[in-house]
Design goal:
Aldehyde Dehydrogenase, Chain A, domain 1; alpha/beta; 2 domains; Aldehyde Dehydrogenase, Chain A, domain 2
Length: about 425
């Protein structure tokens, strides 16, 4: 990397090179992109010792910063997680290439043949926090969709992201694609983020992936269009017709499997008829598993719980903490979620199909689940190989953002000397 007198100059150079690479990628063959991703997966695995060594530096940095256990878990890599990274790269490589897909095809009465086809967005800027695997996921998905990408990882994952990025670049080189197609901002300086948000000449869309503070900053300061990935204030409503075994299994998994991911459950809404039975049982099980359960007055009589405060409703803990309260019925649950939810993921546990249908029809979260753990709110689990984030807005992409969601479209119109009268 050349020396620059300012972050502004550095980012301008990165943006210009990304734009040039995007022009090449837009016409790149599906085979070359697939080859680059398979090669990148091979390089990640071959370089795993160096990547894990880099991760040790990041973990020490995180400890010095006083990161929570959940945040340290998000930051940590091991061979199993690197195997997951390589599996994700290969899964994305093997997906159908979205570029050029014909979305619609019709012929007008005047003889014009019109097609709407997928086309790359161009240059995507991805700003993310501690999870280093996002480097691989975002780089791979953007490449698959024919986009160049500028990655700005969190300061905590700087060394891990740099090592993973190096493997991605090796894959590009092996496949004969421009190395500038996937660039990583080589500084922890926050001014780089500020610059990215104003680079309207070279960046086509920004994808923020992180906590409320990061996403709020991006949304308030960006001049570039943004795919919003808001916090995961995930609710589970336990209906009076819920199966007790399903409740116990799903809730424990949704809260405790990994507390630091955006699909982790953060609030239980329990039908008031179940407060002393199923509700008591699941809350006691959470407490026994080491979860701090912050409850309303009705549930506070359960041993081991902590009284909830007003700010516990509508809160993303990303930790072994969950809020719980009773609601009179489905309407009460829907009202609570509309007031305190973040339109990310919400779940209903019930054996009543009418209750499930109303929950899914009347709420407008990006992901709605019935009798399934909210930990499945993940592009990889949706068959996308990976995702760049869960978009909670309503424009363009929504829900898990995979390769197809990182495209736009254009119209191809063909005539035979056709003129308009």
């Amino acid at each position: 990397m050349k020396d620059f007198e300012s972050i502004e100059q550095l980012m301008a150079d990165i943006g210009a090179r990304a734009k040039q690479a995007a022009a090449v990628l837009a016409a790149a063959s599906a085979e070359s992109k697939q080859a680059a991703l398979i090669a990148a997966a091979d390089h990640v695995w071959a370089d795993r010792a160096a990547i894990l060594e880099a991760n040790v530096k990041d973990l020490e940095y995180g400890r010095q910063k006083g990161l929570s256990d959940a945040m340290m878990d998000r930051l940590a890599l091991d061979e199993d997680r690197l195997r997951g990274v390589t599996d994700g790269l290969r899964a994305i490589a093997d997906q159908t290439d979205p570029v050029g897909e014909v979305i619609a095809d019709w012929t007008q009465p005047n003889g014009l043949h019109i097609q709407r086809v997928r086309t790359p967005l161009g240059v995507i800027g991805v700003i993310y926090e501690s999870r280093p695997n996002v480097t691989a996921d975002a780089g791979a998905l953007c490449l698959k969709a024919g986009n160049a990408v500028i990655l700005r990882g969190g300061s905590e994952s700087f060394h891990s992201s740099t090592a993973l990025h190096a493997a991605l670049v090796k894959g590009l080189r092996d496949a004969g694609l421009p190395e500038d197609a996937i660039q990583l901002v080589p500084t922890r300086d926050r001014e780089a983020v500020a610059q990215m948000l104003t680079m309207t000449d070279t960046i086509d869309v920004i994808v923020p992936r992180g906590g409320k503070g990061l996403v709020g900053l991006v949304q308030s300061k960006a001049r570039v269009p943004v795919f919003a990935h808001l916090e995961g204030i995930v609710h589970i409503y336990i209906d009076k017709a819920a199966d007790p075994e399903t409740v116990l299994k799903v809730v424990l998994n949704a809260k405790t499997r990994r507390t630091g991911i955006c699909g982790a459950a953060e609030c239980l809404l329990i039908h008031e008829d179940l407060a002393g039975t199923v509700g008591r049982g699941v809350i006691s099980a959470l407490v026994a598993s080491g979860v701090e359960v912050r409850t309303d007055a009705t549930l506070s009589r359960i041993d081991g719980t902590v009284p909830a405060q007003s700010d516990d409703w509508g809160r993303e803990y990303l930790d072994m903490i969950i809020a719980a309260r009773t609601v009179p019925d489905l309407d009460g649950a829907i009202d609570h979620i509309r007031r305190f939810g973040s339109s990310h993921t919400d779940c209903v546990l019930t054996e009543d199909p009418d209750v499930a249908a109303r929950f899914m029809n009347e709420l407008d979260s990006a992901i709605l689940m019935h009798n399934a753990s909210t930990q499945f709110a993940d592009g990889g689990e949706f068959g996308m190989g990976a995702e760049i984030g869960i978009a909670t807005g309503k424009m363009h992409a929504r829900g898990p953002v995979g390769a197809a969601q990182l495209t736009s479209f254009k119209y191809l119109v063909r005539g035979q000397g056709t003129v308009r009268s």
